[in-house]
Design a protein that fits this description.
This protein has 3 helices and 16 strands. It is 9% helix and 49% strand. It is mainly β. The chain is globular, with a radius of gyration of 19 Å.
Length: 223
């Protein structure tokens, strides 16, 4: 077991180019030369001359977080070196964002991203003070973004003829040009009887894609 684990071909060598790359199914590598952004608590290893500093969200986003309870607790990674990011052995995948294709993401699914990207906390129309992934972060600009999912994600096309309904606890990301709204699939009578446990979904309409966890994440135990 140890002989196989430490074979030379299993040792990770220095990156040949800067930027964000997939290390394996559950980790990404960021070869930093300047600055990068990451969700706090996701760095698992690093080497080189790097500094990690907590990053403020700005007054506007802090106010939104106070109202919605959703936000991105970020850190800035600066210097020159390599850092590896992962989150509870979740699957990781990369998305390239540009001026033509932004992305709206659940904050809890963000791992790390290029410092050139901008983000803003947005709300689903009609969500009110509800939770369950209804307050999200829309990324714009040009750069690469690393996200996590509870397994290999489902990528579903959305068309004007075929809107998609997604459990609010399972949605990972969607095209920002889609129209998002809440949809109630249970009658009042069914809810009185206890319901099916799937009372409200996120309805996505228009032209684009939605990324979905292949299962609802388990609740975090109270500390």
């Amino acid at each position: 077991m140890q002989r196989n684990l430490f074979d030379p071909e299993n040792l990770i060598q220095p990156a040949s180019t800067p930027g964000l790359t997939q290390e394996n199914a559950m980790a990404v590598r960021y070869a930093v030369k300047g600055e990068a952004r990451a969700r706090q608590g996701t760095m698992v290893a690093w080497r080189g001359s790097l500094e990690f500093e907590r990053q403020g969200q700005g007054v506007g986003n802090l106010l939104k977080r106070a109202v919605t309870g959703e936000g991105l607790a970020l850190m800035t990674v600066s210097g020159e070196g390599e850092a590896w990011f992962a989150s509870d052995a979740a699957h990781c995948f990369l998305v390239d964002v540009d001026d033509s294709h932004g992305l709206t993401v659940n904050g809890k699914n963000v791992l790390c991203f290029d410092a050139a990207l901008n983000y803003d906390i947005t709300t689903v129309k009609g969500a009110g003070m509800a939770g369950g992934g209804l307050f999200n972060c829309t990324f714009t600009g040009t750069g690469r973004l690393a996200l996590t999912s509870a397994g290999i994600p489902l990528v579903l096309p959305v068309t004007p003829e075929a809107p998609v309904y997604v459990d609010t606890d399972a949605v990972v990301a969607w095209s920002p040009q889609l129209h998002a709204s809440l949809h109630r699939s249970q009658s009042v009578g069914s809810m009185v009887k206890g319901g099916s446990g799937e009372a409200v979904q996120l309805k996505l309409e228009g032209e684009g894609v939605v990324v979905v966890n292949p299962g609802e994440p388990k609740p975090v135990p109270a500390s």
